[in-house]
């Protein structure tokens, strides 16, 4: 019984230290899969916190579809609503904008994303907008 209580206590301590958005200087990397939009394929992105509200970063998607395969390399800006919505520390909701090059064309997109962190470093994300993706998040 003592071991069970100790295990539950340690697990609760680890989970309670998870923080989805720390603000200025925070760094998040994400990897996942695009499931709708211009096609399906892998996605990866990085965000750097400028303040409690704003992050900047970049990323790349590869879209595979029936007609052609297109890479999308982009810069992005996100607006983190964790503090404004008084969300628990494990959850971050963020709308944003990305601008880049999609194949041979200019690409512009908007998204609404959410992250949930299970531990201090590892979590999951989902983003929906011009395309949709989900996957894992890592906090540096």
Automatic annotation (TrEMBL):
<keyword id="KW-0732">Signal</keyword>
<dbReference type="Pfam" id="PF20351">
    <property type="entry name" value="DUF6646"/>
</dbReference>
<protein>
    <recommendedName>
        <fullName>Outer membrane protein beta-barrel domain-containing protein</fullName>
    </recommendedName>
</protein>
<feature type="signal peptide">
    <location>
        <begin position="1"/>
        <end position="20"/>
    </location>
</feature>
<dbReference type="InterPro" id="IPR046588">
    <property type="entry name" value="DUF6646"/>
</dbReference>
